[in-house]
What we know:
Layout: E1 11-15, H1 20-27, E2 35-39, H2 49-59, E3 63-66, H3 80-101, E4 104-110, H4 133-148, E5 152-157, E6 160-161, H5 168-178, E7 181-185, E8 189-190, E9 193-194, H6 195-210, E10 217-220, E11 227-228, H7 229-240, E12 249-253, H8 273-279, H9 286-301
Parallel strand pairs: 1-2, 1-3, 3-4, 4-5, 5-10, 6-9, 7-12
Antiparallel strand pairs: 8-11
Helix pairs in contact: 1-6, 2-3, 3-4, 7-9
NADP nicotinamide-adenine-dinucleotide phosphate (NAP) is lined by residues 15-16, 18-22, 41, 45-47, 67-71, 86, 108, 110-111, 138, 157-160, 165, 195.
Amino acid sequence: MTGFVTSGRPHLLVLGAGGQVGHELSQRAWPPALDVTSLSHAELDICAPEAVAAAFQQLRPSIIVNCAAYTAVDQAESEPQRAEAANATAPGRLAQACAEAGAALIHLSTDYVFDGVSARPYVESDAVNPINIYGRTKEAGERRVRERLERHVILRTSWVYASHGRNFVETMLRLGAERGTLRIIADQRGCPTAAHEIADAIGHVVTMILDGSAPWGTYHFCGAGATTWYDFAAEIFAQSARHGGPQPQLHRIRTEEYPTPAQRPKNSVLDCALAKERLGLVARPWQQSLSFVLEQMFAARSGSAPR
Ligand SMILES: NC(=O)c1ccc[n+]([C@@H]2O[C@H](COP(=O)([O-])OP(=O)(O)OC[C@H]3O[C@@H](n4cnc5c(N)ncnc54)[C@H](OP(=O)(O)O)[C@@H]3O)[C@@H](O)[C@H]2O)c1
């Protein structure tokens, strides 16, 4: 990584810029007074300490947004070291580097830090108890960030999708076009969250950090309203009908009928009241954000809005 020039102005560094949230962030319009560098996995591996140190030295970032993560939930069960390196060790080192450089860190985490047995939405102060490797490594990452850096905002989000990348919406549309019927899990509840909404929330937090008003800490932020994977799928197909999308028959199944390597929480609904109160973040109803993303997806397919 060579050739970067620093200007003395605040510098925002986005890591994992090729992912769903990272991509949305790198497409954003930022205040002109802010220098922004977005680096994909290929451009900066957060698990490579020398490369991270070189990036800090060359770019002198004042705010880092860490969107990089090992997000393959099932694969993590057979690759725990890779998941640990990206989700726990690397964020810990990033937090340390931020502390030494006087920078702030916005770090993303997950609803999967919870075990899902609660009968109500999870609040930030609820005890964590991850039930899969991915969740365990993300929880360890959160803890290391908190231990090493005061100036951090951890945003826990859930069920992320975008008009690009691999996600539930893309999978449903692909499978729906290939098969006449789909069996969808109807006993796991959560909050679908559009990556562009997370990017908007991060943009708002960046503004707060720049004006010195950011209340550091851990917050929940996800799409408003909760649903099941089955009802999420039903809404995807109902809305995509307007765009000529596939219309498969859907069948409700229980988690036990679709065994996966990683266990998933039955309830991963996040209560976002604290983020509203302290950060002023208010997410749209998840169905509205879905509608926006589907429009983008179908427009891109028809060639009218390439992304
Ligand atoms: N996706 C979800 O449903 C979900 C739910 C809750 C929370 N979250 C959290 O939200 C954040 C963003 O998720 P997302 O949906 O945008 O994930 P994503 O689309 O999978 O993007 C993650 C990005 O991180 C990159 N990456 C992986 N290892 C890296 C490394 N060592 N160094 C640099 N980059 C690396 C990946 O690159 P490669 O593809 O090349 O590996 C990918 O571009 C993550 O912290 C995730 O844990 C996601």
